[in-house]
Amino acid sequence: IKVSKTDMNKLILNYLYLEGYKDAAKHFEKESGMACEAGENYAVSERKEIRELIQKDMIDAAIDKLNDLCPEILEKNLSLNFKLQKQKLISLIKLKKTEEAIEFAQNKLAPLAETNKSFLVDIEKVMSLLAFDNPQESKNSDLLEYSLRHSLASEVNEAILQAFCQTYEKKLLLLTKMMLFSQKKALSFHAPQISDVSTGKYTYEQYMRRNLS
Amino acid sequence: LLLQMLKDMEEKKPIEMSETLLLKLKKAKNEIIGNRHMKMHYFTEGLLHECLLSIQTKISIDIQIQSLAIINSFMEDCKEAKGVLIAQKTLFFDIEKIFKDNQHVQRAIDICLRIIRNGLVKEIIRLDDFLQSEMLEYFPKAMNTEVFVLLISDILAFCATTSFNRRKIFEQKEVIINLTKYIEYNLSYDCEYAILNALSKVTTEYDELCKEIMGKPKIFQIFEKYIRHPSEQARICISQLLANVNKFVKFPLSQQHLLRWIIPTLVKTLKNTNIVMKIQAASILSTLLEANKDFQKIAGDLGAIEDICETLKNLCSETKEEKKESKEEENKKGKNNNGRKARDEAMGDIIDAEDPLVFSDHELSPEQKMICYGLNTIEAITSEHDEFRRKLIDQNNHKIIIELLKHPEPKIRSSACLCMVSIGRSDKIVKNALFTDGVASILNRLLYDKYLDVQINATSAICNLTLDFQKQIIDTGDILKRLVELTQTKHITLRYKAVFAIKNLVYVPTNDIKKMVLAKLTYLKLFDLIDDEEPTIQEQAILTLRNILHKRPEAIQEAIDRAGSEAFLKKLDEKLIGLNPSLVTQAIYLLCIIASGNEKQKTFVMDGNIVKTVSYTHLRAHETEADLVCRLLLEKKKQEH
User: Fold this and answer.
1) What is the band of A155 on the pLDDT scale with cuts at 50, 70, 90?
2) Closest CA to A132 of A166, A94, A170, A84
3) Other beta carbons less than 10 A from residue B321's beta carbon
4) What's the CA angle centered on B67, arms B66 and B69, to 5 degrees?
């Protein structure tokens, strides 16, 4: 089935705007000659700013902007609030501000765990980084990676869109999920499988085996 | 900082600290949001008081917005702050002022709407203050983004809890009309659901609004989407809206399946452990099933009565246990516990027949609401289906309804009586079971109830039960005496029901019973009732007389003698030449009864004037019955003369 270029461009534009990549989306709009759909670019400047601040590990500034935009997001979403505070603790540990980190964990983070015991486990994992002179050597060093901030920024972005009654589900991701689900179902028919989603590479192995037999 | 700023403002000094204050407020806001521990810390430091002060003063809008955000945060998860906020009587008015003065500032509108919504839900802001204010007038202009529409919908849904509130909201039609417009837009689920929720609460009484909704081309698509929604709450919401709209607007044939579809949802919800949802389901069912035989059958077949009775039994046993505990406590305290007084309190105090009370607008507890709606639903299902009445008896579920006739809450007693009215339409077997379980004596007691509605409905229940069971009714307590007393009450509906009940008492019973009734009622009272100001009562009185005189020539003579021949004829004459077709018909039937007596009575009927009146009535009669009866009379006259 041939997918039209227009549809592909719409999917990409949808992804860029919903993720908050305002500049990329603007360039893409210019090059493709397309315009975004209603609601996709809602508060895109603010979302872009907040995303950048989180990715740069400037959590206080991100929280400030977020609360200015909508104070109820973190009030109602305790899990997201905790993740942001946890990220702040991680950034303090990375900057080797040990005493500040301990004080922050005791006074600001630990009280949040009163509402949810699972938060304690997360706090303990982060605090374990303090045991190492070089936190990268800790078995929880994945907490220091950029990917965590990136996914946190996406989560915050989605929360903002949801709070303002906008669609936050990217069509591209939805389609990918549907494709993987269908592929799993089609396994029983030995249909060709996409082995690498990023490149779209197929494998015909099972299909060939079945036909040969 | 704030106090210093305010002082500087008063002294007209330049304010240099506003920027600093703004930063400090933002920092505090970021620390308290989502953090109960920090909220307590800042509350103790007096932050809330500072913020309440700042929204009262003409300070910069930025500072006021930050203060409002902090106040909004304190409303969540901080009991200590709630007391302070409730005590601040001007809170709502300060917010209203900021809202009105900053219509162009989106952030101000956003935070004001959020704080009003949260304040109303948490009972920090008084509903009366909101409804009496001008806020609703400003809402249409504010409905320019989805999130504002959502917030306003939430506020309206919360407010529309009573008829009075709905009327107040409906006075600002523009808000509601805007909501109906937005249904057609491609909105997010949250916003669309909020609008539907608001409309489901507001449309309870307004046919104009229901017609407006039904006029939207996309509305049936939306109904289809929500009646199969995975969320039970969404399904309940759309069921409410459908039931409300159905009251005023007939659904097209192709869409009537929507109404049938929601019944299983509602019946299923009756099994839910959440009492709020149960109440909603029972309330919607009782509206939907009213006067719709098909829906009643569906609900009955799905076991709605059994589920409701199960809930009623559980609620009653919980109440009994609570009462037992409180009684034990009272005994421990050594208070006097007069058994009769307790019984009277349990069943409503006896008072003078002339002055029963009308129900007040007092709010029922959730359990009481559930009982009322549950009874109303049972009443609706059993109103036209004998199979469900029998099933009720077979499963012994009638006992809980009889028990509820003795409930301390009058609205529940009234609903239980209405249930009895419905069940009492049944055959002898069903009625016999009710009598065996003592319904008659309880209804006797309820004829003296403190509340008018209870007396009326108890009388209605007796009306239905009395057919085929006249002896049992007369032998129970002083029902007959009380019914006769009620025929003299100033309350028209009660008087009507009483006469109706007496009419049924004398319908085809033994002569002894007729004599007993007449002994209490007397011809004098009956003739007075025939001249009652209310035509429906006149009709019932004539029917009563007709039943008493049926196949009893001696009684006919007695009636004529008591009234005096001329007076009697004059009375009948008046009814015959009157404009009320029902009265004309009944008067003619009465004449037939008299004409079926002895020769003297036949002659009495064939008196010239009456024949002329009957002829005249025959010529202008519109009712087929009256026409037929007139012809029969004239035929008889022709045969004999």
Assistant:
1) very high
2) A94
3) 10
4) 65
The two three-digit tokens of residue B253, written as one number: 């044939």
Q: How confident is the model at residue B340 (pLDDT cuts 50, 70, 90)?
A: very low
Q: Determine the Cα–Cα distance for residues B37 and B31; give it in Å rounded to an integer.
A: 10
Distance CA B139, CA B42 (A): 33
More confident residue, B227 or A207: B227
Residue type, B633: L
Per DSSP, the three-state class of B534 is coil
Q: Which of B237, B299, B233 lies closest to B272, judged by CA?
A: B233
Three-class SS state of A202: strand
Contact A165 B111 (CB under 8 A): no
Residues 6+ apart with CB under 8 A from A130: A93, A98, A101, A102
Token pair, residue B95, equals 């917010």
Structure tokens at B325: 């505990």
CB contact under 8 A, A70 and B110: yes
The verdict on A100 touching B (C-beta cutoff 8 Å) is no
Q: How far apart are CA A83 and CA A89, in angstroms?
A: 10
- pLDDT bracket for residue B591 (50, 70, 90): confident
Q: pLDDT tens-digit profile of B48-63?
A: 988 998 888 877 888 8
Strands A193-196 and A201-203: antiparallel
Structure tokens at B90: 């001007």
Among A46, A80, A165, the strongest candidate for a mutation testing the B interface, having the largest count of B CBs within 10 A, is: A165
Q: For residue B599, with 0-12 CB atoms within 10 Å meaning exposed, 13-18 middle and 19 or more buried, which class applies?
A: exposed
Q: Name which of B26, B35, B110 is nearest A108 (Cβ-Cβ).
A: B35
Buried b or exposed e, range A19-32, using 16+ CB within 10 angstroms: bbbbebbeebbeee
Give me the interface pTM, i.e. the ipTM: 0.83
Q: What is the residue-averaged pLDDT of chain B? A: 84
CA angle B138–B142–B143, rounded 5-degree value: 120
DSSP characters for B144-169? TSHHHHHHHHHHHHHHTTSHHHHHHH
Chosen for mutation from B30, B62, B191 (greatest number of chain A CBs closer than 10 Å) is: B30
For residues B342-352, average pLDDT: 49
Q: How many angstroms separate the CA atoms of B109 and B139, rounded?
A: 10
Render B3-22 in DSSP notation, one character per residue: HHHHHHHHTT-----HHHHH
Is pLDDT at A195 greater than 60 in this prediction? yes
Measured between CA atoms, how close is B232 to chain A, in angstroms?
21
- CA-CA-CA-CA torsion for B79, B84, B85, B86, nearest 10 degrees? 90
Contact B29 A71 (CB under 8 A): yes
* Mean pLDDT along residues B550-556: 79
Of the CA atoms within 13 Å of residue B510, those in its CB half-sphere come to: 8
Q: What is the pLDDT of residue B317?
A: 85
State if pTM tops 0.90.
no
Task: Give the position of tokens 């008299």.
Answer: B594
